[in-house]
Write a structure and sequence with these properties.
- The complex is a heterodimer of chains A (174) and B (127).
- With 174 residues, chain A is of the alpha+beta class.
- Chain A has one domain: VC0802-like (2-Layer Sandwich).
- Helices cover 28% and strands 35% of the residues of chain A.
- Chain A is built from five helices and nine strands; from the N terminus they run βββαββααβαββαβ.
- In chain A, the strands form two sheets. In chain A, strands 2, 3, 4, 5, 6, 7 and 8 form a seven-stranded antiparallel β-sheet that branches. Chain A has a two-stranded parallel sheet with strand order 1-9.
- The termini of chain A are far apart.
- Chain B has a five-stranded parallel β-sheet, with helices on both faces.
- Chain B has one domain: Response regulator (Rossmann fold, 3-Layer(aba) Sandwich).
- The chains are: A alpha+beta (174), B alpha/beta (127).
- The interface between A and B is medium-sized, with 24 and 22 residues.
């Protein structure tokens, strides 16, 4: 049985897809700047480059849906290329360490269980799937039947959420 | 007796653990990894590392709590503890300081976001 050290499940998120953005248009950096300017965290971001255009996929906290829609409505070029899907969440397995076996087995396990995968990305330490939020616990259960999890693993769900804020550091004088 | 070449990297962000570990290994260090404070404490007891690179915000047992337990335990108090923190610029002292109402006996601080070259300097300074 393949071993993993841990598995993480996010809170409810919204999935944002940006379609057919020209590489030279600067729309993807503009999109990220808009989110950063409003202190909207991006817990997942992937971009696919094809024949001079980019398709980007990102997730934001579900609570930011209305704010994001308002922000994008004032940016017509971005708005018309944006598709928003509610009710998704992230399931992350780690460590990944470029293991194609972990990727293949986990993807096969999820799809065999009939779980829809909206997006996935691997990073230096983790493998992350974007799934239906209502199915995250089910997805974790089917994966844990396939993978051996370290005995002393961290909790699956975060005990705290890190958000951006405007609070200044003590003694900064601002 | 501690393992003089072993550094334990502890963070709940697997990407941070991996990138810091790769840098340390490329510089010739042995590395162990843990993903929260409870797992880290188990690894410390089993492997007795020379140094800890320890995140502050972690599930189950945070970095302050773990650091205090290490420094108050005669068997482990000599382990060098470097705390990873986003507020390092606000820390006036590296030996005994006060942050968010908590005290810590960490040996030094590594500011987040991490500059890997700066991290190596801090690691070498504390060995």
């Amino acid at each position: 049985m393949t071993s993993i050290k841990g598995l993480k499940i996010s809170g409810e998120l919204g999935l944002v897809r940006l379609h057919a953005i020209s590489r030279s248009s600067g729309l993807l950096p503009a999109f990220c700047s808009i989110l950063a300017g409003s202190q909207i965290n991006i817990p997942f971001l992937s971009a696919e480059y094809q024949a001079g255009s980019i398709q980007a996929t990102c997730c934001v906290d579900a609570a930011h849906r209305d704010l994001l829609k308002r922000l994008l409505s004032s940016e017509p070029d971005l708005h018309k290329r944006t598709e928003y899907t509610s009710g998704v969440g992230l399931l992350t397995l780690y460590p990944h360490q470029s293991s194609l076996k972990l990727f293949g087995l986990s993807l096969r396990t999820l799809t065999k269980a009939g779980l829809r995968v909206f997006a996935m990305a691997s990073s230096i330490g983790a493998l992350t799937y974007v799934l239906d939020y209502a199915q995250l616990d089910n997805a974790a259960a089917v994966l844990l039947a396939r993978f051996e999890l370290a005995e002393n693993h961290a909790p699956f769900k975060a005990e705290y959420t890190v958000t951006q804020g405007t609070q200044r550091r003590p003694g900064s004088g601002e | 007796m501690s393992n003089d070449k072993l550094i334990l990297v502890v963070d709940d962000d697997p990407d941070l653990v991996e990138s810091v570990s790769m840098k340390l290994e490329s510089e010739g260090f042995q590395v162990a990894k843990a993903y929260d404070g409870v797992e880290a404490w188990d690894r410390i007891k089993d492997e007795k590392p020379k140094m800890l690179i320890l995140d502050v915000m972690m599930p189950r047992k945070n970095g302050y709590e773990l650091c205090d337990e290490i420094k108050k335990d005669d068997k482990f108090k000599d382990i060098t503890v470097l705390l990873l923190t986003a507020v390092a610029e606000a820390v006036p002292s590296t030996t005994y300081t006060h942050m968010d109402g908590k005290t810590t006996l960490a040996d030094d601080f590594i500011p987040k976001p991490i500059d890997l070259d700066n991290l190596m300097e801090i690691v070498r300074d504390n060995l």
